[in-house]
């Protein structure tokens, strides 16, 4: 299945600006991989203290400074709790959805004894905001999406304070209002005096007359050094229907078309030719071509280059960080071309004169009918010039356009979790698998002959056994298919009424072939109406039984679904035994992976307390908080995304590794011979270095011919060898010691440009030369479809053979890269590949993980499969996502964050897993002066509060089989 890519790159002599397709087993990747990127603002570091809460003109607030509800007696008495827009308002889920503002926070459990004065009243947990250096530091939550203009919201918070102060201190409720074209403003909502003695109720209200880009609610106020205590927060809208469960904002959006004269009612006003001429028509071709709508259409004619077309300058009408939908009605004419790819593209010139081209969409246009081209784009910066144009068909072919509309994209309705009744996990949907009833339920696809024979394996194939557990033995019967005159011929079965939408099905079988002249591919395929779906492949070159395993999922209703086994060349007999197709119980697998994860990613830790006061510490409360998991979680980024501060904030907060989508590749750094461009890579590397993020070097070379720039392809053997040497020398010398990893020659299992031109030794020499120039980085092989069973070219067995061959010839390979571009992942299949590759003893990284589904919940499930399998496997040492921001990924429906910054269900799942893999513990020091816990590898902070002082110590839990002992001096 082909997918569109919104692609951004600099225009050079080499211009592969076509819309990218996701690679499948039958085709290699196209020229330009694109990375994704994302951002969310959480922590707002106001470097200076605020004045007395200056009001914004867009907001009004009713402030009850000292309302009558002083002490809380039990739970909140507010009647609006059912409509509360605050998430996790009583901290029952820890600090989920809350963020500390330039200070620290934790949730104290009931009866912890942290706050002696409130111990008698404390019947539940509460948040403690500590290490406050300024009075404005506190606890905050983003409520932007929950607000509606014109509604009055009431605030009720149960608060307290703890410290050495005398009397009382003031706790304030504040709104932070962020607008991209105006100064950030702060709205004072209410305040309340609080003491060490009892909980107080802070109450107030506010309303918004216009909606800023972001609204942050937070509690603040006590002097520096005083801990702020928060037991609950309720913000509700009692008198308006605007307070609904969806929390949808009523912010209006501009629905105007930014294209001037979109249907040519004013002739060619505002339109021009891009390297060609444009003309206006009411008809063409002797009246055979007329407008689909309106009275006129335009043509781009006398085109001498594929990038020539019709254009309009939209500078000043396109806003940054706003997603736009693009719709055009187009066709082609002339030069005996009946169909061609027609693309919409943005030319963008930055304020520093840097130029780039952004692919918006592509459509197969014909000379017979008008077709609709649709796409979407977003600009991260505020460029000095933006031009939209149409391009693509061969020179001499006219581009015709009837209209063009570019509008602010409406937010897609949120996905709903698929409701699947009676999933039947682990139940085979294939009829008569055992063949005890002959070939009943089966039929031969094509003119071939089927018969039932005996002598096949009685055990379930290993990958299926890993999913199903204990299972009845197979019958030992198999289907023999003879008389095959085409490679697609084989046994088939209709399963239309048995396949359920959105369920992930695992495919498993034993297969064998008759006598053949060479290796043969065997494939379990599905015909889903007119679409071919790959259910798994295996290459066979002997007379043994082989396991074939794969998976599939159907997300749109189909009228006909047929499964069939095919592949060997005509005349080769095919044997199939024990075909199983069953829905996978992912939750059961996750339970197993959680246990496995605890074994390999956690370590027992003992804190030993000593010092002059150690004898009085028995029973003292201890809080341990993990600051960061040390496991590498990375994401791909591109230079253009660095202009989006929202993206930057999300990326820096949620990832500790990175990889550049294009900026380090040869076609980017030297698109024209001798003109080196390291500016983009330098800026990205500087950004990552400043934010303590390590970067994989991707890639020195790329073996697939479609990714090799034209000038390189045109070189003779000697000049190509010189160019290769110059490339590796320039790159490795320039960045010596700065990239801890390099993918040396990308996708050698799927391409052979350099090997074909320079001989087999060139691959080994690339590794050797890179190591000589910079011995510090780990040198990786990197390829795709290794982990999913759908591509015989890069099966784990083939990948192992490939790696061993390179090593035997002296290549200093230090790591194995598995890209992870996968559909409908099944844990046991992924794990099987990792187990096989693990025998090489090299670190394995998932280097380019992305999953795709139009349903965010299914996408989240797929992503969770990949992350849990990787994190639970001892051979995996890092995971890098191939992007996360909509419109900046190589696959559609793969993003974690929507174009304008909303985190979708897949993004929420990723963040939830990151939280799950942080260890927090609390308790009391025992009689031996010790406190023990088990924690994930990473950095920690322990805090102990005695009557006289507070002790804080940071430490690191690294890998190790024995318990880690940390001494804490009191």
UniProtKB/TrEMBL annotation:
<dbReference type="Pfam" id="PF00331">
    <property type="entry name" value="Glyco_hydro_10"/>
</dbReference>
<feature type="compositionally biased region" description="Basic and acidic residues">
    <location>
        <begin position="44"/>
        <end position="54"/>
    </location>
</feature>
<feature type="domain" description="GH10">
    <location>
        <begin position="611"/>
        <end position="913"/>
    </location>
</feature>
<dbReference type="InterPro" id="IPR017853">
    <property type="entry name" value="GH"/>
</dbReference>
<dbReference type="GO" id="GO:0045493">
    <property type="term" value="P:xylan catabolic process"/>
</dbReference>
<feature type="compositionally biased region" description="Polar residues">
    <location>
        <begin position="59"/>
        <end position="71"/>
    </location>
</feature>
<dbReference type="InterPro" id="IPR008979">
    <property type="entry name" value="Galactose-bd-like_sf"/>
</dbReference>
<keyword id="KW-0858">Xylan degradation</keyword>
<keyword id="KW-0378">Hydrolase</keyword>
<keyword id="KW-0624">Polysaccharide degradation</keyword>
<keyword id="KW-0119">Carbohydrate metabolism</keyword>
<dbReference type="InterPro" id="IPR003305">
    <property type="entry name" value="CenC_carb-bd"/>
</dbReference>
<dbReference type="InterPro" id="IPR044846">
    <property type="entry name" value="GH10"/>
</dbReference>
<keyword id="KW-0677">Repeat</keyword>
<dbReference type="Pfam" id="PF02018">
    <property type="entry name" value="CBM_4_9"/>
</dbReference>
<dbReference type="GO" id="GO:0031176">
    <property type="term" value="F:endo-1,4-beta-xylanase activity"/>
</dbReference>
<feature type="compositionally biased region" description="Polar residues">
    <location>
        <begin position="33"/>
        <end position="43"/>
    </location>
</feature>
<feature type="region of interest" description="Disordered">
    <location>
        <begin position="18"/>
        <end position="73"/>
    </location>
</feature>
<dbReference type="InterPro" id="IPR001000">
    <property type="entry name" value="GH10_dom"/>
</dbReference>
<comment type="similarity">
    <text>Belongs to the glycosyl hydrolase 10 (cellulase F) family.</text>
</comment>
<protein>
    <recommendedName>
        <fullName>GH10 domain-containing protein</fullName>
    </recommendedName>
</protein>
């Amino acid at each position: 299945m082909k997918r569109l890519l919104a692609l951004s790159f600099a225009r050079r002599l080499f211009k592969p600006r076509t819309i990218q397709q996701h690679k499948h087993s039958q085709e290699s990747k196209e020229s330009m991989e694109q990375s994704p990127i994302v951002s969310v603002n959480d922590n707002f570091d106001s470097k200076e203290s605020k004045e007395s809460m200056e009001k914004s003109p867009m907001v009004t607030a009713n402030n009850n400074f000292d309302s009558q509800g002083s002490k809380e007696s039990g739970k909140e008495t507010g009647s609006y709790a059912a409509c509360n827009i605050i998430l996790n308002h009583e901290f029952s889920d820890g600090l989920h959805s809350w963020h500390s503002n330039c200070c620290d926070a934790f949730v104290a459990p009931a009866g912890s004894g942290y706050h002696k004065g409130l111990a008698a009243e404390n019947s539940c947990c509460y948040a403690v905001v500590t290490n406050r250096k300024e009075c404005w530091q506190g606890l905050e939550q983003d409520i932007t999406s929950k607000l509606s203009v014109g509604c009055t919201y009431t605030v009720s918070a149960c608060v307290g304070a703890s410290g050495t102060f005398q009397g009382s201190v003031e706790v304030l409720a504040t709104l932070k209002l962020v607008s991209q074209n105006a100064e950030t403003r702060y709205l004072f909502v209410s305040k309340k005096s609080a003491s060490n003695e009892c909980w107080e109720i802070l109450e107030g209200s506010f309303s918004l007359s216009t909606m800023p880009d972001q609204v942050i609610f937070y509690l603040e106020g006590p002097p520096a050094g005083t801990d702020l205590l928060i037991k609950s927060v309720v913000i509700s809208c009692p008198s308006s229907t605007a307070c609904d469960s969806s929390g949808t904002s009523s912010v209006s959006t501009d629905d105007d078309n930014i294209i001037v004269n979109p249907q040519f009612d004013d002739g060619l006003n505002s339109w021009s030719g891009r390297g060609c001429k444009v003309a206006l028509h009411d008809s063409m071709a002797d009246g055979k071509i007329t407008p689909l709508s309106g009275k006129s259409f335009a043509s781009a004619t006398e085109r001498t280059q594929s990038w020539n077309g019709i254009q309009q300058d939209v500078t000043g009408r396109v806003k940054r960080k706003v997603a736009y939908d693009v719709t055009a009605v187009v066709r082609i004419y002339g030069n005996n071309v009946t169909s061609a790819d027609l693309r919409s593209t943005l030319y963008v010139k930055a304020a520093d004169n840097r130029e780039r081209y952004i692919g918006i969409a592509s459509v197969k246009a014909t000379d017979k009918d008008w077709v609709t081209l649709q796409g979407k784009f977003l600009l991260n910066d505020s460029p000095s010039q933006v031009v939209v144009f149409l391009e693509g068909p061969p020179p001499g072919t006219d581009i015709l356009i009837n209209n063009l509309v570019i509008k602010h994209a409406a937010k897609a309705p949120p996905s709903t979790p698929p409701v699947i009744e009676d999933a039947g996990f682990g139940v085979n949907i294939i009829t008569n698998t055992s063949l005890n009833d002959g070939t009943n339920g089966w039929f031969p696809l094509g003119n071939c002959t089927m018969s039932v024979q005996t002598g096949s394996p009685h055990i379930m194939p290993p990958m299926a056994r890993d999913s199903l557990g204990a299972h009845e033995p197979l019958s030992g019967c198999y289907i023999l298919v003879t008389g095959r005159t085409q490679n697609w011929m084989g046994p088939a079965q209709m399963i239309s009424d048995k396949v359920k939408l959105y369920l992930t099905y695992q495919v498993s079988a034993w297969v064998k072939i008759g006598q053949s002249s060479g290796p043969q591919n065997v494939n379990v395929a599905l015909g889903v109406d007119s679409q071919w779906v790959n259910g798994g492949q295996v290459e066979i070159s002997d007379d043994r039984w082989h396991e074939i395993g794969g998976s599939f999922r159907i997300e749109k209703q189909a009228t006909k679904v047929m499964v069939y086994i095919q592949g060997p060349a005509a005349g080769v007999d095919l044997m199939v035994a024990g075909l199983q197709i069953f829905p996978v119980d992912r939750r059961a697998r996750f339970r197993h992976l959680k246990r496995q994860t605890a074994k390999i990613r956690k370590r027992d830790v003992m804190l030993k307390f000593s010092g002059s006061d150690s004898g009085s510490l028995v029973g003292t409360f201890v809080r341990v908080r993990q600051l960061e998991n040390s496991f590498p979680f990375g994401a791909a980024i591109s230079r253009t995304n660095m202009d989006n501060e929202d993206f930057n904030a999300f990326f820096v907060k949620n990832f500790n590794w990175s990889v550049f989508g294009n900026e380090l590749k040869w076609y980017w750094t030297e698109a024209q011979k001798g003109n080196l461009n390291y500016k983009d890579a330098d800026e990205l590397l500087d950004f990552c270095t400043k934010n303590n993020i390590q970067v994989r070097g991707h890639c020195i070379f790329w073996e697939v011919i479609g990714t090799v720039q034209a000038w390189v392809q045109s070189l003779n053997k000697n000049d190509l060898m010189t160019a290769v040497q110059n490339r590796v020398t320039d790159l490795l010398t320039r960045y010596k010691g700065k990239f801890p990893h390099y993918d040396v020659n990308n996708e050698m299992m799927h391409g052979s440009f350099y090997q074909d031109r320079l001989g087999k030794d060139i691959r080994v020499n690339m590794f050797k030369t890179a190591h000589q120039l910079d011995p510090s980085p780990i040198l990786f092989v990197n390829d795709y479809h290794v982990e999913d069973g759908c591509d015989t070219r890069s099966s784990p067995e083939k990948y192992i053979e490939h790696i061993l061959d390179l090593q035997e010839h002296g290549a200093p390979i230090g790591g194995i890269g598995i890209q992870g571009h996968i559909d409908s992942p099944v844990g046991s299949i992924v794990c099987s590949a990792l187990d096989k590759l693990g025998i090489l003893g090299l670190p394995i990284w998932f280097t380019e993980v992305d999953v795709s589904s139009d349903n965010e919940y299914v996408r989240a499930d797929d992503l969770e499969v990949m992350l849990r399998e990787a994190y639970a496997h001892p051979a995996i040492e890092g995971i890098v996502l191939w992007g996360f921001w909509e419109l900046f990924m190589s696959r559609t429906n793969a993003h974690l964050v929507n174009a304008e910054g909303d985190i979708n269900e897949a993004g929420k799942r990723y963040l939830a897993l990151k939280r799950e893999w942080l260890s927090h513990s609390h308790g009391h020091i025992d009689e031996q002066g010790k406190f023990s816990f088990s924690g994930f590898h990473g950095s920690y902070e322990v805090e102990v509060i005695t009557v006289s002082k507070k002790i804080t110590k940071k430490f690191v839990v690294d890998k190790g089989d024995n318990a880690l002992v940390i001494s804490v001096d009191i």
